[in-house]
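Collaborator request, handled under Task 6.
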Amino acid sequence: MLLLKQRLIGKYAQTQVEEVETAPQIAEWDKSIEAARVVLVTTAGVHLREQPIFQVKEHDSSYRIIPGETPIEQLITSHTHFDRADADQDINCVFPLQRLRELASEGKIGSIAAHHFGLQGYVPDPTPLIEKVGPEIAEQLVVDEIDIAILSPG
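C-alpha cells returned to the collaborator:
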C-alpha cells in the first residue's frame, strides 16, 4: 500500500493547492429562487451523443456545451473513472436536466440556462481548467445571466 501511495503522490506532485490570504468575495443576491436562472455544470463526462467523447486517458480538460432544450435521450457520459451503470439508465442521476425542467415548469425556479456544461473530472493538472476552461465557462455564465450553478460530479 505504501508503494502505491508513493507512486500516486509522485505522479501528481505537480498539482499544488494555493493558499489564499483573504476570503473569496460573495456576491449579494436579491432574487428569489423562483426567479433564478439555473445552469448545470458536470464533471461526469456528459455530452451529446454526436459530440466527441472525452479522452480521459489523455486528461482531457475540454468541455462540451449542452443546449438547454436537448432531449434527455441525446445525452450520454463517456467518463471512464466511475461506474456509469446508473447514469446509462438515467442520465438525471449525474445531470438532472429533466428535474430542472420540472422545477421550472412548476415555478420552483425561474428558468433553466440556454447552455449547460459537461466536463470530465480526471484532470490531474488543473492549469488548463484555471487558465482557459474556467474563464470561458464563466464568461458564458455571465452572458446567459446565470443566478445559480449546480455542480454535479460523476
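The cover message to the collaborator said: "Strands lie at 37-42, 46-48, 64-67, 75-77, 111-112, 115-118, 148-152. Residues 127-143 form the longest helix (17 residues). Please let us know whether this matches your experimental observations."
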